[in-house]
Design a protein that fits this description.
Layout: E1 20-24, E2 52-56, E3 66-70, E4 76-79, H1 81-87, H2 91-94, E5 103-105, H3 110-124, E6 131-137, E7 145-153, E8 157-163
Length: 164
């Protein structure tokens, strides 16, 4: 006779569930009623420009934050209204450009350069942790901005929230 294999019962692990929130990829306005938008209604009802994106609750930018949305090829796919002002570049000129043409690590050491790219790549891959690095605009020296890097989507991307 075959022995009956006992399988462990499923159980909820506390702290493993993360809260995610929807926000506009241009003005950072939260989704109305905090609900997921209908697939055919992902354009922001507040500004009419941005697509609604989802990110971890602790990574969602405020309307005063400057932020970028970066895809898996490390190309910029979205620029907030505040980031356009802070970085002095329009969204039309930034979209589809490598993030390294807009932001570079603030530290001169080679390891800092790869750490920034690795953190962005990990966020795009769906990494759970929120990373922080120091960056600067590519054409400005003596400026350091803290950037918070987290996953967002759909489609899967990295959210870079700049704190100047």
């Amino acid at each position: 006779m075959r022995a009956r294999l006992e399988r462990p019962a499923l159980r909820l692990v506390s702290g493993a569930i993360e809260e995610w929130s929807w926000f506009c990829g241009h003005c950072a306005a939260p989704s109305p009623r905090g609900e997921a938008p209908a697939p055919t209604a992902r354009v922001c009802p507040s500004c009419g420009f941005g697509l609604l994106l989802e990110a971890r609750h602790d990574a969602v930018p405020t309307t005063d934050d400057a932020f970028l949305v970066v895809d898996s090829a490390l190309r910029i796919q979205g620029v907030s209204r505040r980031a356009e002002q802070l970085l002095a570049i329009g969204e039309d000129l930034a979209v589809n450009r490598p993030v390294s043409e807009i932001l570079v690590p603030a530290d001169a050491e080679a390891s800092a350069r790869t750490a920034f790219a690795a953190a962005v790549s990990e966020a795009v891959a769906g990494g759970g942790a929120v990373a922080q690095r120091f960056v600067r605009p590519w054409n400005t020296y003596g400026v350091r901005m803290l950037v918070r890097i987290a996953a967002c989507g759909p489609p899967r991307a990295a959210l870079l929230v700049l704190k100047s």
